[in-house]
Amino acid sequence: MFIDYVKISIKAGKGGNGAVAYRREKYVPKGGPAGGDGGNGGNIFFVADRNLNTLLDLRYKKIYQAENGDKGGSSLKDGKNGSDVIIKVPIGTLIKDAITDEILIDLDKDDKKFLGAKGGKGGKGNSKFATPTNQTPRFAENGKAGEEKEIVLELKLIADVGLVGFPNAGKSTLISTISEAKPKIADYPFTTLEPNLGIVRYKDYQSIIVADIPGIIEGAHLGKGLGLTFLRHIERTKILLIMIDITSEDPAKEYKTLIHELNQYSKILSNKKKILSFSKADLVDDNIIAKLKKKKFTGHSGPTLVFSSATRYKIQELLDTLWNELQD
Ligand SMILES: Nc1nc2c(ncn2[C@@H]2O[C@H](COP(=O)(O)OP(=O)(O)OP(=O)(O)O)[C@@H](O)[C@H]2O)c(=O)[nH]1
Ligand SMILES: [Mg+2]
Q: What's the gap in Å between 274 CA and the centre of ligand 1?
């Protein structure tokens, strides 16, 4: 399952209290202050880890609590610091404050680390409060509370190319043809309910990451079909491959609808570079293909690609075009 949104509570550890203690030595009845400091509370960190793809692991545990610092001891012994908690997340996870909705950080690189909640400082022991006029203080400082936050984690896939089309356009079939991804494919709408990422090997050592997402229908921005919330997964792609089923009754209208829904979702998507393509070329005659290639689509410039995942017709050309566009 693809999990892209999780809410959790994080609680850093409390600092340990400083100790009130006195030196006890033979023949010294009233020793000076010897209370150690409390240890610091453990912190909560988030770290991006390239081995993770989903937020699934975080779904079952809602509260993350770091260890408290130990209290200070006698004989100037300081308390142990509480251990930190490190929460691993996939690359591309946004960390937000659940209450203000503010983005705290974008963990967009492997190993990038973020201090989500700082542990409370340990209190000072009474030995630290000795002054010339009060050489044996009878008090120590208490440890401070650790930070507590409500956090939202949101994963935005980072792909090079996003596939955009109506349900059944053949998006999942394409990704399964050009990559190792094995998404569900079926001849009914909304087969894909969660995004799939595919890594396409290009030439020898290059790769293109493609994101297959659920289908879009007219009125999606009003919540029709699966709505548009999954479009956030393609906001960071460099290009969008618009896919229209070549057997569509009205390709121009389909194209217009897709562009309209993208525009409704965000400026980022409306400004993104788009390539227009027709899938399932094996289902029509060559003269229909030739006609479509010449047809003008309002608002679209650049080549129109026609391909078939079923027969691999023009699949290499499709990849070459995507690759070349990505180099710009
Ligand atoms: N003949 C032919 N059929 C295809 C081709 N590509 C996909 N199909 C068929 O079209 C149907 C829909 O394919 P999917 O890949 O599931 O379509 P999708 O765009 O991912 O659909 P949603 O996930 O519902 O948005 C399936 O029955 C596929 O077998 C193709 O190149 N040629
Ligand atoms: Mg699909």
A: 21
Tell me the pLDDT tens digit for each residue of 5-30. 899 999 999 999 999 999 887 777 67
Pairing label, strands 239-245, 161-165: parallel
Q: Which atom of ligand 1 is nearest to the CA of 165?
A: 19
CA dihedral 70, 73, 78, 79 (to 10 degrees): -10
| Most ligand 1 atoms within 8 A of CB, residue of 178, 185, 258 to mutate | 185
Domain limits for position 131: 1-155
Q: How many domains does the chain have?
A: 2
Clarify whether residues 223 and 295 are in a common domain: yes
The CB of 279 under 6 Å from ligand 1? The reply is yes
- Final residue in a domain of this structure, among 108, 140, 155: 155
> Where does a domain end: 155, 182, 197?
155
Q: Which ligand lies nearest the alpha carbon of 309?
A: 1
pLDDT digits (tens, 9 = 90+) for 162-186: 999 999 999 999 999 999 888 899 9
Closest CA to 43 of 146, 113, 124, 150: 146
Beta carbons of 120 and 146 less than 8 angstroms apart:
yes
Query: Within this chain, do residues 168 and 269 fall inside the same structural domain, yes or no?
Result: yes
Note the pTM of the prediction, 2 decimals: 0.65
288 Cα: distance to centroid of ligand 2 (angstroms): 25
Asked whether residue 184 falls in the same domain as residue 315, the answer is yes
